[in-house]
Amino acid sequence: MGRAPCCDKANVKKGPWSPEEDAKLKSYIEQHGTGGNWIALPQKIGLKRCGKSCRLRWLNYLRPNIKHGGFSEEEDNIICSLYVSIGSRWSVIAAQLPGRTDNDIKNYWNTKLKKKLLGNKHRKDQQSRSKSKQEGANRIITSPNSLLVPENSTTTIFPQPYWPLMPVIPSLQYSSNQDPSFNDQDSIKKLLMKLGGRFSDEENGWSSPQGSHQVGSGDDHDNYHPTLDALNINPNPFPDGTPSCTQLVCEEQSNIAYSSSCMVNNDTIVNNNNHIELVAQETGGLEEIVLCNNRTYPQRLDGLELLFGEDMLVNDKIAPLADPNSLIYQSFVSSNYQGMPQQCASELRFINRP
DNA sequence: AAGCTCATCAACCGCACATCG
DNA sequence: ACGATGTGCGGTTGATGAGCT
Predict the structure, then answer these.
(1) How confident is residue A118, by pLDDT bands cut at 50, 70 and 90?
(2) What does each C-alpha distance from A308 to A119, A218, A263 come to in angstroms?
(3) Same domain, A152 and A48
(4) What are the Basic and acidic residues biased-composition ranges (predicted)?
(5) Separation of A283 CA and B15 C1' (Å)
């Protein structure tokens, strides 16, 4: 037997809210608050609505200072950066955008931003496939001075119109006149500490959002890392003890950096001789392997399935990172290489699998 | 003008977690 | 410790309107 329903479905109104219902709910909450019990609230005010429905209506529509539509480019960037970093945690993303609701952001992402990032699928397939056939095996995108603004942006793997040209995203650091909760790495640390879940260290295992993989040893006191411990990030996601990119950055700079993660259809990012390479492999998930100080640091990437989906794979190349002008590229880089020593990821190279 | 397709977004659903007795 | 219940969240649905043929 399942759990009892939260309300009497037969006597509960569904569908769009009328102005009268809105007014009732709004005036009651403004005068008395929610009373800490959404389930009981509709009965108190004579609304034939489910308590959950009242809560949703209040949070997403009636609550003061709600903004609808008209997302700014800056908001786009924040959403993209956070999505790349933490995935579809809309409530967390919404918390960084005052006046925005998780539902709004979710809808905006699904209907507009996703398409803006990924472009027209049909045109993309056509263009990239035909183009990539003509390309040689190697393609190097060099950025000797900056991770965020690759110097050579003249890649011809994908035509420019393919990915929208966006202004450079200045990582996750925002100016002081913006939301103070999100304007420095300390704040990002706090944000990350709030996240739990994907970044949690439950049972010393790597916690993946879909539970698709659970690797890591049991009690691993030898690998105790105070910085990572404070961040609640698993310092050793790999069974063999290979340090993660996150660990690397914390060690190298005592700085905050975190990497998103991604299990993608048969695609893997590997590193080779001072380059980060993106290689499609027959098995495994998406991995990021960073070279720094002559050491390689593989790292699993979860949460970018959408961005690196199967249709992004063209002749064994993963498309989105190919164009350094693309929003997704910049979001990815700004999120993943925050605080990383520059020499660690100064180049991207695309190679074909032998 | 009618019919169809597609985009948008409010609202619903079900699950997981938190809290309480 | 455990079950019942409330809350929060993310995924999904469906009504509606705009645009196209």
Answers:
(1) low
(2) 13, 31, 9
(3) no
(4) 125-136
(5) 31
Range of the domain at A35: 11-62
CB-facing half-sphere around the CA of A195: CA atoms within 13 A: 31
Look at the block and give the residue holding tokens 């000797």: A144
Q: Are residues A123 and A244 in the same domain?
A: yes
Mean pLDDT, chain A, rounded, equals 52
pLDDT range class, residue A150, cuts 50, 70, 90: very low
**Domain end position, chosen among A45, A62, A79:** A62
Q: For the purposes of burial, counting CB atoms within 10 Å of the CB of A200, is it exposed (0-12), middle (13-18) or buried (19 or more)? A: middle
- pTM of this prediction? 0.53
Number of domains observed in the structure of chain A = 2
* Chain C nucleotides covered by protein, CB below 7 Å: 5-12, 15-16
Q: Is the CB of A107 under 7 A from strand C?
A: yes
